[in-house]
Amino acid sequence: DVKVTQSSRYLVKRTGEKVFLECVQDMDHENMFWYRQDPGLGLRLIYFSYDVKMKEKGDIPEGYSVSREKKERFSLILESASTNQTSMYLCASTTQGNYGYTFGSGTRLTVV
Amino acid sequence: QQQVKQSPQSLIVQKGGISIINCAYENTAFDYFPWYQQFPGKGPALLIAIRPDVSEKKEGRFTISFNKSAKQFSLHIMDSQPGDSATYFCAASNQGGSEKLVFGKGTKLTVNP
Questions:
Q1: Chain A stretch 1-40, residues whose beta carbon is closer than 8 A to a beta carbon of chain B
Q2: Residue A75 touches chain B, beta carbons under 8 Å
Q3: What digits encode the pLDDT tens for the residues B11-67?
Q4: Which of B32, B45, B89 faces A99 most closely, judged by CB atoms?
């Protein structure tokens, strides 16, 4: 069974902390994505990556960065967490030319 | 231009009824329209998808209707069941561009027994 695994289901962090959200896929997918999900706002794209060491900004990249050193792993970094980054974060992956995303189960981040 | 507008925000249907969720888009370059289903505590999962060369696609109780001239598409769930209770997202993409999807804001469906 193919999988996208997000390392934490729940995280609580303090304002100003540097936060790492990890995502690993075992399907050898080229494309990986980070979305945040907020009630009434749907899924909004933060960053995506088409290949190792490659990244592109999505619709709401401010306050975030990403790292993709290996094909299977895509990390989302909150350089200095703020309370408005409290949200559900979803990682997804897909192979080239395929628009059927496989999502992880999400990480619910609370910044206090 | 990049938006996908989804309605209603929430929907309550009786068991056995028909659930209908609507989406509209502006970008005429969009050419792939999937629907995702999300249960509480889970990530969204691809449910069904359509390309604009057909007006309807059916998979079991789930049907996508597509109206290219109106730039609208909808999901119909026939004989709705309590197990269909979930949040549904429509999305769109320009396959000539990237594998990036633009999502609607979601519809929370509740099917009462």
A1: 4, 31, 33, 35, 40
A2: no
A3: 999 999 999 999 999 988 888 999 999 999 899 999 999 988 899 999 999 999 999
A4: B32
Number of DSSP helices (H) and strands (E) in chain B, helices first: 0, 11
Least CB-CB distance to B104: which of A42, A59, A92? A42
Q: What's the Cα-to-Cα distance from A58 to each of A5, A49, A100, A109, B19, rounded to whole Å?
A: 21, 10, 18, 20, 32
Q: Measured between CA atoms, how close is A3 to chain B, in angstroms?
A: 11
Closest CA–CA distance from residue A109 to any residue of chain B (Å): 13
What is the spatial distance between Cα A106 and Cα A61, in angstroms, rounded to a whole number?
A: 18
Confidence class for position B103, pLDDT limits 50, 70, 90: very high
Cβ pair A88, A21 in contact under 8 A: no
- Residues in A closer than 8 angstroms to B46, CB to CB, are 100-101
Q: Residue B60's pLDDT is what?
A: 96
Is residue A90 over pLDDT 80?
A: yes
CB-based contacts of A47, cutoff 8 Å, min separation 6: A33, A34, A55, A56, A57, A58, A61, A64, A65, A66, A76
